[in-house]
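User:
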Amino acid sequence: MTDHQPTETADPTTEPPTGEPAHPDAVRLYGPEFAADPAALYHRMRERFGAVAPVLLDGDLPAWLLLDHRVVHEVTGNPKMFARDTRRWNAYDAIPADWSLAPYVAWMPSIMYAEGAAHQRRAGAVGDALDAFDRTELAAVCARLSDDLIDGFAGRGEADLIADYANRIPLLVIAYMYGFGSDETPALARDVADSLDEGEEANKAHQRIQARMRQLVADKHDHPGPDVPSRLLGHPAGLSAEEIIIDLLIVMAAAQQPTANWIGNTLRLMLVDDDFSLTLQGGRSSADHALNQVLWEDTPTQNFIGRFPVHDCVLAGQHIRKGDLLILGLAAANGDPRLRAARDAGSGGANRAHMSFGHGEHGCPFPAPELAEVIAKAAVEVLLDRLPDVRLGRPADTLTWHPSVWMRGLHALPVVFTPTRHTAS
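Assistant: Predicted structure:
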């Protein structure tokens, strides 16, 4: 148990305390050491500091990294004590305008930063709109879209399964769920890809995405259909058009890269791990196991900003100030030695006690994890069905990961296979 008691939620607009949190011997959560082997760094921090470690983010801004599964579970399960609104950060006003991590903490009036009843109202509406999709029908749509993408490179006998496949599937599915016309999807996909870069072009792409979402909501208001925007417009929660627009953007962003990385990381595992590569011909029987193992070993979302204590407290022996930034170490929590020992002794690959989708009211809302699994499973199974002799196009030890504190995904996954122009029916 931690040494604190929950309190009522504080006003996020109150003046934060002055000064910076004391972080003696803080570890930099960026740079060559982190990029080389984050899991090893988490292990060393856990041995040195215990469940909560003082860290420095890019620009040496201080924070705390939660390394222990139990502590992450407790913090995410107590929103009154550990709140979500980033304006609570006691260093919020000191963030440089050009800080590289600003997009992760810049407050916006979205479901992501809403608290209490406001969050429950919006999360409930989004959950209901997503839950209306029949899982079997969605799986069939995912399979069709996966087939279409494979048709584009099947005749070449080679492909990059990240750029040509994994990165493209989630957005195509979201476009379908949002009710975008097929003629609108290619431009949306280009803008989403461009928005992930840096600079002026990324800003312009983001503005175009926002304009498309605004037009989409206006169109669905006049011509509703069986899609997410229409269901949000008609939901009893009475969301405004502005609330719907920004929450649609948040849901799209939350679905795109994590699901893409889940697909890419699973395909990598099945191509490089002997236990899986021996069973590629029976890919359907091993896909479920591989998808779950990736969530434990190479979870797409590694760390997440964040939570902010509403008053001073002691957390796992560390004195934490009101408004300090707590980073949810999802990958570190999944690698918690005590949890791993219990998992290895218990249900093995079927265990789903990982933190990959977060926890609590600000975790990935139901049924989003279930829908993400439908998408990822269909993508993996269809690829293995269509390209049964697929194999890596270069040595596994030359594959490289994006040097991100937050996400775990490959730069590329080159493969070769027997060329075919057959389209699955």
